[in-house]
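Example is below:
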Amino acid sequence: MPILKELFKIYLLFITLFFLGRLGLYVVYFDRLTDISFTESLLSFLYGLKLDTMTASIILILPALILSLTPQYFARLATRLLNIYVLIFILIALYIENATFPFVAQYDVRPNYLFVEYLKYPKEVSSMILKEYPLQLLVALMMLIVSAWAYLRFSPLKLQEALCTPLWKRFLLLLPITALLFIGIRSSLGHRPANISDALYSTNRMANEIAKNSLYSIGSAYYNYTKESDKLVQSYGKIDLAEAYQRVSMRLNIPLGVDLPFNRPEMTHFSSSNPKNLVIFIQESLGSQFVGFSGGDVSITPNLEKLSHEGLTFTNLFSNGTRSIRGLAAMSSGGFL
């Protein structure tokens, strides 16, 4: 049937795109796979095909419905809409595959919740990307332009021909196609569907990362992040910020300020005629391995090492912030006067 043929073509388009992205990672990080056999490393492609099929099946839901239910009278309009839909997802998938390489180089994992989380700060993220990855952005842009042109010019899809099939014949295929896509999305006969953890087949972490699908990884992370956020709101409830400030002010017996709501300065009991200078160095992602007095390489930060011997140095001090933005608040909220 033409409808099955066209849906399979769309499936192959995305499977090929995901395969090429995975092959690129496999080649770039092949030296990280030396502790497993060559045969085991190739399983990344087999497990990856499972996740790719799950991703492609999700993308195919709308085309399957349109091809099965659209009357022939709207065949031309439906064809245009489907071509735009497929092209948009091709470009999204292609961009994500391009973004995967610098992301893995930075975080040593495929794009995950961080890829979505940092979208809350578009100005900072965009300026950082433009500064740090201009060449990668240029290559990605060229690939997107060429891919869009190639799809519009040489698209193998013949969607209008599929829509010319009598509606009743296409409608009869809706149930088996839906069942097939459901199996593809679930990809499991167990009590729970397959998920991103199904890519964790090896003791080699990079092999597992190669087996993943970046588009599915981002979608899964966003879904789980949203679900967990909703659970937190349900568990703890939500009140207006002004009311929260007022309650804390009453509980702590601290007057509510304007610029600093809970500013409570504590003057020193050890007065001195000489003014004290306090300088706080906050450097994101500066691990202990880069600082001499915390057991790292002293040659990387010699000036910090010098200062550590001239003032008070804390070598076992931790912030209670779980992320950079919370850590900064935790460090700065207990300032000294």
Notes: The longest helix spans residues 75-107. The chain has two domains: 2-231, 265-332. The radius of gyration is 27 Å.
